[in-house]
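This part of the workshop introduces the protein records we will be handling. As an example, a complete record with its sequence and its structure tokens follows.
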Amino acid sequence: MRIISEKTRTAIILFNLGGPDSLQAVKPFLYNLFNDPAIIQAPKLIRILLAHLISRKRAPIAQEIYKELGGKSPILEQTEKQRAALEKHLSKEGNVRLFTCMRYWHPMSEQVVQEVQAYAPDHIILLPLYPQFSTTTTRSSFDDWTLAASKAGLNVPTTKICCYADQQSFINAHGALIRDVYFRVASKKRPRILFSAHGLPEKIIKQGDPYQWQVEQTAERIVKLLMFDQLDYVVCYQSRVGPLQWIGPSTEDEIARAGADGVAIILVPIAFVSEHSETLVELDIEYRELAEEKGVSEYHRIPALGVHPYFIEGLAELCLDVQSGDELNNVLKKRYCAEHWSECPCKAAAILIAHEDA
């Protein structure tokens, strides 16, 4: 039985990364980020020490970035718009209330759990604004919520939506935003699409995290939807920090290669659905300057999905698909990732599918 109805109260928790709401909040935000065991895999005391050291060192650099954005991150306002749009869509289907929950800055799990308790729902849906599952994003948010709910005694049937990397509505939203720009650029110069996602250290992927594979599936589905003749595209990764080896190719290297090849760039933030520092500063300012330096004649950045109707419709479909008794849900309601992606939360599912069956 579908859980969203007029007879039940459903709370939907919309997870996002969060961001500092002032320049003074930058350092504690960074501390929260680097003190996450999903981000720095070290014993607790060492992790706390490292988080203090890294946040103190990186705070002045990050503050300069946030000055470009008016002194704070816009991600909370962006997420609130998505929450309002989705709540409006779902309120036609039943008695629902949506709550915004950030991982590393306010409102965080402990506060939101109290708000949900006051609402007294019959069922809770955890819905990440991370389309592709990673232990560093989706699982980290789920674990933080579970701990806060347990401490507060919030014991309500809960369904976790783990991923929607190739959900059709999500893919359609990307396609709609890319198509017009592509034709406009292609009428003048050969374009190359760079599908750029936030990177991860290679060791996390080698531990079985399916994020990179899911990002690649998203790109393949978008390309298949577009059906452009001999489409030139590449999946690449941005935002590298620290000394570890990260997955590649890097977005910076692909921008340089595009310059050498004499092609225009259409850059698609394939894993970000909200505008924030890594899109508005890294992509729009830093990478645009790099493109000019490397001789790229045209650089076009596709916006994040935000409140695109197809995207909001897709999120609604995920929630409406949840049935009573579901503990975990994805687009396919069965295993999505191959067996060697051992950190996939659907690993206990009995059915292993190939991507072609999606």
